[in-house]
Amino acid sequence: MTTVDIAFLLNGRPVSLSVEPRLLLSDALRHHLGMTSTHVGCEQGVCGVCTILLDGAPARSCLMLAVMADGRSVTTAEGLSDPLAEQLRDSFQEHHALQCGFCTPAMLLTAHCLLSAHPEAGESQIREALSGNLCRCTGYQFIIDAVSSLTERGGEGDASHG
Amino acid sequence: MAEEFASAPHFVGARIPRTEDSRLLRGEAQYLDDIQIPNLLEMAFVRSPYAAARILSVDSSAAWNIPGVRAVFTFADMPFVLPQNGPSPIDQPVLARERVRHAGEAVVAVVAESRYIAEDACEAVHVAYTPEEPVLDMQAAQKDRPRRVHDAAPNVFYHQEYETEGFQAAFDTAPHRLTMTFQTTRQTACSLETRGIIAAADPFSGRMTVYCGTQSPHRLRGDLAEMLQMEEHLLRVIVPEVGGAFGMKAATYPEYLAVVQAARLLRQPVKWTADRVESFLSDVHARDDIHDLEVAFDQRGQIIAVKDHLMADGGAYASYPFSGAIGETSLAAKVITGPYDIAHLSTVIDCTYSNKVPLGAYRGVWGPVASFVQEGMVDRIAQFLHLDAAEVRRTNLVQPNQLPYRNAAGMLYDSGSFTESFEHALAQLDYTRWRATQEQARRVGKYLGIGLSNFVEPTAMASSEAGSIGYESCSVRVEPSGTVTAWLGLGPSGQGHETTMAQVLADQLGVDLEHIVVLHGDTDAAPLGGGTGGSRSGPLGGGAAMQAGRKMRERLDVYAAHMLEAAVEDIAWEHGRAHVRGVYARHVSLRDIARIAYNDVRQIPSGLPIGLEVTERYQPPRPVSFSNGTHAAVVEVNPSTGQVTVLDYVVVNDCGTLINPLIVEGQIHGGVAQGVGAALLESLVYDDSGQLLTTTLMDYLLPSAPLVPRMRIEHLVTPSDGALGVKGMGEGSLIASPAAIAGAVNDALSPWGVSFERLPIAPRDIVTSLGRSSAAPV
Hints:
The structure holds 2 protein chains of 2 kinds. By secondary structure, chain A is α+β, with helices and mostly antiparallel strands. Chain A has 2 domains: 4-79, Beta-grasp domain (Ubiquitin-like (UB roll)); 83-148, Orthogonal Bundle (DNA polymerase, domain 1), CATH 1.10.150. Chain A is built from 5 helices and 5 strands; from the N terminus they run ββαβββαααα. A 5-stranded mixed sheet of chain A has the order 2-1-5-3-4, with helices on both faces. In chain A, strand 1 and strand 2 form a beta hairpin. By secondary structure, chain B is an alpha+beta fold. Chain B has 3 domains: 2-29 and 471-618, Aldehyde Oxidoreductase, domain 4, CATH 3.30.365; 32-132 and 190-282, Alpha-Beta Complex (Aldehyde Oxidoreductase, domain 3), CATH 3.90.1170.50; 286-463 and 622-772, Aldehyde oxidase/xanthine dehydrogenase, molybdopterin binding domain (Aldehyde Oxidoreductase, domain 4, 2-Layer Sandwich), CATH 3.30.365.10. Chain B has 19 helices and 31 strands. In chain B, the strands form 8 sheets. Chain B has a 7-stranded mixed sheet with strand order 3-7-1-14-11-12-13, sandwiched between helices. A 6-stranded mixed sheet of chain B has the order 9-17-16-15-10-31, sandwiched between helices. In chain B, strands 20-28-29-30 form a 4-stranded mixed sheet, sandwiched between helices. The radius of gyration of chain B is 28 Å and the shape is globular. At the A-B interface, helix 2, helix 3, helix 4 and helix 5 of A face helix 1, strand 29 and helix 17 of B.
């Protein structure tokens, strides 16, 4: 099978590899580049556990071919290392926002993106922002609490949900 | 119970964040598909496109020619079965043998150097079939129509009848009788991590190491040994991080046998992970119940007798080792009266084969349908008599002075807080205010409904989907450096056992949490135990941890007393140090004791063994321990779109002593979310030819963050008489919530006289039935 040479930024570091054109980005990240925090739950673009940040915006790595990352910047949960990321990790632990942990890296990426753009987000906006990340364990409440506590309102929340 | 602990502080009962979280939050945790093994081959399956067919031929020559393909297996190459020793006489073959009996049944296994190549090769395998008429309707199937699924056995593989003495007279003479039929469609656990397994010969010992996200590591090892005719001690099962299980991962599956056998035959490591389509076509399905019900009651709404024909569609085979159909029905029949005092019961159970995926366990097995039936019946009675729904519940609830209470099916409710939890839930919800709001809203064309769901949750039973081991085990070792390592036979998948079991041990040993490591899921290290399922890990695992911790502490007390020249009774522990009670200056550390126990063994007090290791097994005093509680939901239904919005949700939960309230609440939240799915979204749909139409997450809908309500939780504590007073609690929230939400939807639609008796209630169901209904809203 022919292969294609690609190069992109992965968590801020340049990587290059030779891939089959049909290789999914999620598989390239997981099995060729060792970024196993990028999980695979459906390969149908629904569950969101394969979420990465592509040039800073959340994207489904299971719906992309690895060749489509050529020349782009890809961030996985392993690469989340700024102060906000650490606050999110602490807050997730403190609020018990994870159980099996399978959706967690993707949740962190989406939440990080939301809080970076909308530090003022209220509960409804947080729920909406996380609507593309399914969680089968937590019922979302403690995830919402963990994210809310880092907003400018500091978890005071709004009354618009429930 | 203060004497049960070595000392303050008490970790049991504290809201302690989990020790598991760090590796998960950093993306470092290794789930099955993250494991790297050199020369790992991958398996993919050719699955049946037909619900029922004869296999005429399999031509795999083209597949063998694809570079990278290492093997193509059919049943002839691995002639193994998952045997049935229970009521179902039909074994399940590892790969289809002559016939296929459900769409998605594995027919051919291909092993290749990558999953991509294996899937290419699957497409190159040509299987010729003669389709047969599928058996898809469980009520027709009971009469062996249109035919038998298995020639050798009737479709009804489990039939039971039960009736209380005097039932008929009580039923016949009751003032009122109502008939109703409740149904739950097929649903499934749908863990976000799919199933998978790796088998790799251990290069050091030559034994077979099996990595699998199973809930029951020791049972899986035993099953593999028995079914593949291997010696148990030549197998090691390791459970990696598990991305959700919910009962579904307790079963032993055909693919597991195929992978282990392939690794034996090829003498190379082999992996299989399901993709999502395969998950829907091969993970055990759940629910799929019909209850034909007649209820007799008096003018106050007091229920006198219940007659129920319970049916479940078991699918093509009884899932091993736990048939979901038998679980759904036989357990439901035992608690169908819930927390209500109903004297007479008559039940008939029929479980049938069909040409669908085998039915197995999903969190709350039997419970969601039983609660839906029991609460639905109470609501119909209230409606019929024009009584308030809460009042009819008060009339029927088991009263505190009746406990312990034996229900009409013979089950003993050991303890509980039925009336208290109900009244607390009404108060938390502000039931009266919501009733007034509902009335006002209707006048302006908004339709609110209130749903009430009182539940009982049988926990810590000897038998569950995890298997039939009625105890749990724990080994504790104080290391030479004075830190503590513990092993349990559990198979957790996100429940936080590493934290909760450490909390129990910390209190027993008087050491701080950070000095304890809890391990599980490796059959080479963990003592033989039952695993996780049936809400048993807290009460049984916790019991084992308590017992092992106490046994260890008794030995440590002897050391401390000897070294401090004090009486054993005067020894107290805190932060890993023993002191003479009241005299903190006279102390000795766990590290000092460990040094003697391992390295200065001539100083060991006489009568004690060398070292600091114990293994204990805990069997609870009762065969079952009942948790209970009440869920109350307020919803708004949009009659033109059918959209349901949950406005308020209250849970009052009583699971006895709480080891960690934070974790208990997380479990409740998750169960309620799954209940929202069960009530409003989730349905596995088959078409008339037996094709499963819902094989993506775009068709089988899971609740997302905006749909799940904020929940308010109150804990009541009625301890069990088992270890620590702990009761199980993993399933109650999914047992109670579908009934609460469905009840609220039905209440909202009461002006139309519409009442749904089938779950889930989808928007189109609401719109369709309101459109057809002649009654106009008041």
